[in-house]
Queue: 3 jobs
Job 1
Amino acid sequence: MRSWLTNIQWCPGCGDFLIIMAIKNAFKELWIPSHKRVVVSGVGCSGKASQYIDGYAAETLHGRTLPFATGVKMVDPSLTVVAVGGDGDGYGIGMGHFIHACRRDLDITYIVFNNENYALTTGQSSPTTPIGAVTKTAPEGNLIKPLDPVALAEHAGCSFSKTAHSKNFQELKEIIKAAIQHKGFSHIDVEQDCPSFRRWAM
């Protein structure tokens, strides 16, 4: 058995712990064996998620999670492909790939760990940082309106786009299960705690 708990690289209280546990439980309850699933992650705090879930995995380039996941699915459509990334990874650097993944509608589940900042690089504003939030790149408060990932996904053609919170574990797990079972591209925006850098109201 893998002793990943001793090597975890997230801050105590990070919502990432709950999200990966929800993914693992969803796989278990759907009876998807480890050799039939692939977890693809990008760069950021969420990037290590692929290492903490049994099965095939790839930690890819920043913002390039979805192109890699697309390649995996096209090569072997029988695999359950789950892509994970952060709000900076997916809605900033990887925004173009996100929009086109929604349009292509391949059977991939995309779970975004949304802590509303670039936490791995110590708390810069991201595309989902709320107005007024004080960050390293906005010391007097963020002035840019955050985007709405679910509305954006739906507008781009995604037929399964939902929001959840890492603390609502049971609901999150059920949404992940429904997303995996959905035939086509599915997107889940998971709001989560970031005790180190997200210090505004949640």
Job 2
Amino acid sequence: MQTGPREIVTPYRPIPLAVPEGMAPNEFFNSAENLADLTQNNGLLQNPEGLLLYRKAIGHSNIFDTSIIYNTSRTILDPLGRPVRRTQVPAAVKNVWNRMNQIVVEFMLERYPDPDGHLVLAGEASLDATWALTAPGVPSIRMLHNHFIVFDKAELAAAPLAEPGNPNLTDGGQHSLFQAHMRDVYRAFFDGLDLKILKPCRDGTCRIALTGYPQGLPAWEIAGGAPMLRSVRFWQEYDTILKGFLDFYRSFFSQVSTRNAPMLPDLYFPELAEEKLLFDNDFLKTAKMVRDRCIHDAKYANAIRWQPAFKQLIYRNDNGKLIVTISQNSIGNAITELLGVVVKRKPDAEAYNRAEPALLDQLFEVRRRLAGADLGEGVGTAQWPADR
């Protein structure tokens, strides 16, 4: 069987959506009006912390697909001021968020226990809120939200290979500036983080054989497996990975922007940044290379993501191990592409209707477990009651 990224077709029920005249769709998607519609038509469970579990109306997979969004649309009306990553979430909200994540991931692993049969993943894709809403690549809902997705590996194996040059494939080996020019610096910086549960994967051992992804990205095995998702320490280390990434990314582009810039005042790991980054010749040489190109190439400079863009996820590899990885650069929107799965969504109400009953049954069971753990109350819609 040939290894390579796959492109699958996922049918969905067409949604009648009236975007007000003069607004771009992604501008409307970020409005309080649209988020209210999301709750009323697809909401499953919500809690006082503002976390909403909902059915993905246009999803990645019809086997299992759901999201939890930190819905701040009515409490923070400025879309550019809303939290877009875990580090911006209040501690009390993140405590509930982590427990919800743990329960949903455990459900997926319980329902789909065979790593040869299904690809299981959960995680977040985030772009910084300093981007203009209409810029290419900005998420359609500009608030922190997680994805929980299951793919059938037999369907993936039967799917055609994706175009290798597809720009949405987040491939550290081909597209990442960090991977191409600062791989050793990047790894050394992460190795300096205080991690006990997360153990570094080496030499591509965490790749999915079917797709060959992720490629070139740092990855860590969760020592102890799924039970560690119930550990506070695990979620602290999951945040540590993100904080380290943010420090590296921000420090690098600070040097790109300004030669010999002083260390940023609000880094999470300032001593590590000083030792591993700001005194490293490869790091600073690469910053100069990018800076020089920005000065002479307006199109290149305009495409720079000056603030952190990333995808971070938990997935199960072919050996049944749970792996954490984070991308150096989110080239596309869909988090599935980090694992080599390109999703082509197709309007097909009949095909979606065939898959919907089994999908909803699973989502109602997830909702029941979350409600039982005092993590929220059911949401009723025109399609389902609040207490099913």
Job 3
Amino acid sequence: MKIHILVAGWDKERAIWGCTRLGADKVYLIVPEFTKEKTEPWINEKTRGVADGIKNRFSKYFPVEFVPVVYDDYMDCFKKTIKIIKKESGNEILVNIASGSHIATSAAIFAASITGCKAYYVQPERYDDVFRQDRFISYGGRNIVDIPLLPIAAVSEVEVGILRFIGKRGQMSVTELSKEAQGIFDVPTRSKFNYYVDKLGDMGFLDNEISGGKLYTKINGTGRLILEAFAG
């Protein structure tokens, strides 16, 4: 099955153009539930209105499901996108980033990158030079642009286990980690913990520093995103 994840915005035709050209068996629409910051209500209302129009028009061709998110919360957008990808595991998943907020689309790109999905952008046929009321910001479609994704490989169960353990404990020394997390390995050795802490640090998932002759480590924001994507 072909599954499309669309980030809802004000570009109604570009949002759906890729589905009709590439084929779709089901479509998920990421829509704003609310925002953390003080955003004028009509902005979210208009975004949801465009999404309603997409659903009403195309639900007779394929199922369209809304996925409400906190539209200006990167982590929430990322988590909800990952949840869809996990749910549809085994299917071909395509992420359309032609519309929507920069926060939601960047979260969708990162989610696609670390899970190996395909991301694409639809170039509009033309733009509306005066965008107001019920007029859309662009019309039609002209071309599909494949989006190169970050070369992030899926992390192993061992790496997820180490990230999870450090995430629960907060900052800790590798000496403490090697004593308290021995169950991660069949044959635990200090060198294994050193290797993986260094590797996860180089990958940008842990922040490592040497203090008093000891190596200390703690999980960072990217590491927590990885946990969200790959932890059970």
